[in-house]
Specification:
Elements lengths: L1 H24 L18 E5 L11 E3 L8 E6 L2 E7 L12 H6 L3 E7 L9 E9 L10 E10 L4 E8 L14 E2 L12 E5 L13 E6 L9 E8 L4 E7 L2 E9 L14 H6 L5 E11 L14 E9 L1
Parallel strand pairs: 9-11
Antiparallel strand pairs: 1-3, 2-5, 3-4, 4-16, 5-15, 6-12, 6-16, 7-8, 7-15, 8-10, 10-11, 12-13, 13-14
Length: 314
């Protein structure tokens, strides 16, 4: 009887040890950051990257992830959260883009839908929440994008949730974006904005985009923000943008398809020749590139971190 009890105790001890070791194995340490980030102290990373079937109904992939801990899956207070971090000089691009990306001082940490595109006539709802720590002081010398939508045939980002430049990072700040009819406040340097081009009345002439301020530069970091876009991709389509519960755009019978009807929209000959038709693809995570590469001071560069959750495409 004593031997049986002893064997049972040993067996439970070994099992407990295995459970403990497995729990430790699933903990992933965080990469170093430029400044200490409070959110990092409560984020428990469980794996590198994101499972390709993590989100119902879609398949995702890393957009040329260049370093192992650029993207982490984990939890905060039991809720599934994804952490993206950039490293200056690591731009995650293919060889053909290396020279261009080096010039624009890019760094990228993002995922996209794995060859899952939307086409003219399709309807889709995109939703995600993001959190950029307030400890990270964005200088405004580089674009800070958390979500972008691209027409792969044009090689053009036709809409994005991003920041506006600092005033000293462009020649004339007021000339950079066109004023949107949907905007309710004047654009200011380093605002968080919704940028669009080739849709919603933007003709894409002179390669200029429209911008809608979503929040002032000191009002959106250090909190969760939610973006929801529902659109019917058509020349006579519909478009609805809701930011933090507030409707920003809600139109029907509006131009919601970036296509050849817009002058100067197609920029990339390689992409144009590769893709037979207009294909719209959603990218999420973190992407930075210089507004004006000549104004970049490497000593003032800021690597960023963004947390994301509730990502869906329907």
């Amino acid at each position: 009887m004593k031997h049986t009890v002893l064997k049972t105790a040993i067996a439970f001890g070994i099992l407990a040890g295995c459970v403990s070791n497995n729990a430790t194995a699933f903990q992933t340490s965080l990469p170093e950051t430029d400044v200490p980030i409070q959110m990092d102290s409560i984020f428990k990373a469980t794996k590198t990257g994101i499972n390709e079937y993590e989100f119902p109904g879609i398949k995702v992939r890393g957009n040329r992830i260049a370093w192992k801990k650029s993207v982490l899956t984990g939890k905060i207070d039991g809720e599934k959260v994804y952490r993206f971090q950039t490293k200056y000089g690591i731009h995650n691009e293919s060889k053909q883009d290396t020279a261009d990306q080096d010039m624009y001082k890019s760094s990228r940490s993002e995922y996209n839908l794995n060859d899952t595109y939307k086409y003219e006539g399709d309807t889709a709802t995109y939703k995600y929440s993001f959190y950029v720590p307030k400890e990270i002081e964005l200088s405004g010398n580089r674009v800070h994008i958390t979500g972008q939508w691209k027409n792969t045939k044009a090689g053009t980002i036709y809409m994005a949730i991003q920041t506006a430049p600092a005033k000293n990072q462009v020649n004339v700040f007021g000339d950079w974006f066109k004023k949107s009819e949907y905007a309710t406040m004047e654009l200011q340097p380093q605002d968080l904005i919704f940028k669009y081009r080739g849709i919603l009345g933007n003709d894409s002439k002179n390669y200029k985009s429209h911008a809608i301020p979503l929040a002032r530069k000191d009002a959106w970091q250090g909190k969760w923000n939610t973006v929801e876009i529902t659109t019917h991709h058509a020349d006579n389509g519909s478009f609805k943008l809701v930011f933090n519960g507030k409707t920003i755009i809600d139109c029907t019978g509006c131009d919601a398809m970036p296509n050849p009807n817009h002058d100067q929209f197609y920029e990339d000959d390689w992409a144009f020749n590769k893709h037979k038709k207009d294909q719209l693809q959603f990218h999420f995570g973190l992407y930075q590139f210089a507004w004006d590469p000549k104004r970049i001071d490497v000593s003032e560069n800021v690597n960023s971190v963004v947390y994301m959750k509730d990502i869906s495409v329907k």
